[in-house]
Amino acid sequence: MLLPEYGVDPDISWWILSGMTEVSVSSLEARQRKLAENANLALASGQFDYVLEACAQVLKATPGCLSVRRMQRATQLMRIRTKYRVTLMLQGWTKLALFRLRLRKVDSAERLAAAGKILTANPFSSPALNLVAEAGKTLGLRETVIFALEAVREIQPRDRANLLALGSAYLAASHPDEALSVAEEILADRPHDPRGQDLRRDATIAQAVRNGNWESRASFREKLRRDNESGAPETLMPPTAAYSRNSL
Asked: What is the pLDDT of residues 6-17, one digit of tens each?
């Protein structure tokens, strides 16, 4: 059985869709599906190098296969515990430095592949995970963006910029509950953070629209004002705007 599948965008125009979508393992072409299945079996027996090579091949052909990307990351994390950690991390930093020299010359799919190589050497590289997120955004792979930003949060749990990006990614992928949780996390540290308040407002509106509980502008504004510890007035989007923010 394969690893389970899971179902920053302050400005929605930041997303550039290229028609690529995230796919399940069962949707892969037969050869790629067989590779993924073999990698899963190899992972159970600790054949980490084989798993990483197989995952790299599958993701090169189908960057949007999130289950395989998750398997790749799980393997990277397990492998570094059994190898020479310092040596591998130094290799990761070297690869990142070399890749940055030609960053502008490669497309988003190549960035994803390069980030995978860096993370194989150093799975704790936040810059490499951010490369995954940035390339995923360009390709329209929203769950991949979330996957990468969640991984950054595991490494840097209080990084405000990453939390804001993660909250926006949740909203863009129509996960308002998770976005609200991130907003509360930010505001627990910084109660008057304006962008944290904006994220909480947008997540609350998205929840209301999803649940069919959109109230009149006046009553909803009053509710948000009561919830906002700063007491600052809120500027609301109409329901149609809330939908458009999450519908790409």
From this structure: 223 333 333 333
